[in-house]
Structures are given as structure tokens and as C-alpha cells.
Write a structure and sequence with these properties.
The structure is a single chain. Helix content is 38%, strand content 26%. The chain starts with a strand and ends with a helix. Strands 6-7-8-3-9-10 form a 6-stranded mixed sheet, with helices on both faces. A 4-stranded antiparallel sheet has the order 2-1-4-5, with helices on one face. With 236 residues, the chain is of the alpha/beta class. The protein has a domain of 164 residues: Rossmann fold. It is built from 10 helices and 10 strands. It binds adenosine-5'-diphosphate and magnesium ion. The site of magnesium ion has 4 residues, from helix 1. Magnesium ion binds next to helix 1.
């Protein structure tokens, strides 16, 4: 479904990603783990076209999207839920959701149905639909960021550190929703996490990024027992 082939991405002269390849197949949850500054967000942004790789190629559903504009990439079915949630704090929950559908203008009826679908999945958002997003708790804002991403009906959704700064019980809820999005809605997922244990627990495959390079990759069930991964990322 998504094939990132040997990309290198720079900020000015500084190399943030070097010769990175990764892939996602239909209906899969793939995780990407790595320390702060490893290049995880840069990888997501390279896929979305908000930063452009200097070398390599990105292919989505058989089409080269390496140079395609970001809004067209969203329209073609990929959504990125950025680090730090980034909801529109001055807009209501409802209006945040509506904004999420901007790339695929929908008729009022269809838009309503989409809202209802999100409220079913995230009941707390329904209770708070008229509230300004900035007044929500961190966990609720994360749920809103996820729901807003789903409003464009993606085939592939990429989450950037969705558990960051959330209380453990809320983290469980977020991961539960992410699994539901994958299983119930049939959406492929890329999960970028510093919470390596959680990421490995819910993904089928995982890539470990170190200093802008893929240091390891494999089945999550195998990496979770790997001694190097254990000591470097699982604190064991
Ligand atoms: N906008 C930017 N300008 C310059 N350097 C950046 C920018 N964003 C990230 N970097 C650098 O690129 C490297 C990778 O960053 P990032 O992709 O954010 O890592 P991660 O998401 O894994 O924490 C880091 O060295 C970081 O300092
Ligand atoms: Mg990051």
C-alpha cells in the first residue's frame, strides 16, 4: 500500500533521514520507534510532503507521490495526526471535525453522518461537541485529533506519538481506539511512538529508527523479545 524507498531528507545541510525504506500493507499496523530526534516525525512529514526528501521515492497504491502536493496526498487517502495534537483550540469540537473533512468536500447529509460516526466512536466528544477544543483535557484533545483525521475517510492513518503527555489510563484508551480504527474500520495504521512497549504490543511489524537510519526492523512479536530492543527501548 505504501512504499517508502531509500529516502534521504535534509533540513538545510543537516541530514535528518538517511536511506530510509519502510512499507505498510493493507490493514496492517506498523510501528516506528526511536529516541527523540531519531527522525520519526521527519519520516511522517516526508510521506505527507510537508518536507521533501532529497533522494528516494514514495509510492502509494502504485502511484509515485514523492512530489505530489500535501492536500492531494490527503485526498488520495493518507492522513497524518501530528505530534502535540494540534487541534484548533478556538473552534468547537464540532467545527474541528468539519475542518477534518475539508480535503473531500461532502454534502451536509454525508457530513452529518460522519460526525455521528465519530461521536459513536468517541462518546466524550459528543458530550462536548459545542465546547471550544482548547477547553478539553489532553486525552480528549488527542481523541479529537484522531477523529478529525478520520473525517477525511483515510485508507492509511499515521499517528505521531499519540500517547505523549497522557495519563496511563488515557493512553490505554487511545491505543484501544487505534486498534478499533484498524480492526473495525479496516484502516491501515502507522504508529510512531516513544512508548515502545505499547507500540510493539499492538503492531504486526516495527521499524527502529536511530539517528535518521533504520537500525532494526521485523515482526513486533520478535522485536519485543530482542535483547538490544529490550535494553535500549523497553528499559529491561
Ligand atoms: N524544522 C526543522 N529544522 C531543522 N532541523 C529539524 C527540524 N525538524 C527536525 N529537525 C531535526 O531533525 C532531526 C530529526 O527530528 P524529528 O524528525 O523531529 O525526530 P523525532 O520525531 O524522532 O523526535 C533532529 O535532529 C531534529 O533536530
Ligand atoms: Mg517527533
Amino acid at each position: 500500500m505504501l512504499d517508502v524507498e531509500n529516502i534521504s531528507t535534509y533540513y538545510g545541510n543537516a541530514c535528518a533521514l538517511y536511506d530510509v525504506s519502510f512499507s505498510v500493507t493493507e490493514n496492517e499496523i506498523v510501528s516506528i520507534i526511536g529516541a527523540n530526534g531519531a527522525g520519526k516525525s521527519t519520516l511522517m512529514k516526508s510521506v505527507m510532503g510537508t518536507v521533501r526528501p532529497r533522494e528516494g521515492k514514495i509510492v502509494y497504491k502504485g502511484k509515485d507521490i514523492t512530489h505530489v502536493q500535501t492536500h492531494k496526498i490527503v485526498k488520495s487517502g493518507i492522513v497524518y495526526v501530528p505530534e502535540g495534537r494540534d487541534v484548533f483550540t478556538k473552534l468547537s469540537v464540532e467545527d474541528n471535525l468539519t475542518m477534518g473533512a475539508y480535503s473531500k468536500p461532502a454534502k451536509a447529509k454525508e457530513l452529518n453522518a460522519l460526525h455521528e460516526e465519530m461521536y459513536e466512536m468517541f462518546p466524550r466528544l459528543k458530550e462536548r461537541r459545542k465546547q471550544m477544543a482548547g477547553t478539553l483535557s489532553g486525552g480528549e484533545q488527542q481523541m479529537l485529533a484522531i477523529a478529525r483525521g478520520l473525517m477525511s475517510k483515510p485508507d492509511l492513518i499515521m499517528f505521531d506519538e499519540p500517547s505523549l503527555g497522557l495519563a496511563p489510563i488515557i493512553v490505554d484508551e487511545v491505543f484501544d481506539r487505534i486498534q478499533a480504527i484498524n480492526k473495525r474500520m479496516g484502516i491501515s495504521v502507522v504508529l510512531v511512538e516513544q512508548n515502545a512497549f505499547m507500540a510493539l504490543s499492538i503492531s504486526s511489524r516495527c521499524y527502529v529508527l536511530e539517528n535518521g537510519k533504520v537500525a532494526m526492523q521485523g515482526k513486533s512479536s520478535e522485536l519485543i523479545d530482542d535483547e538490544t530492543v529490550k535494553s535500549a527501548y523497553l528499559g529491561m
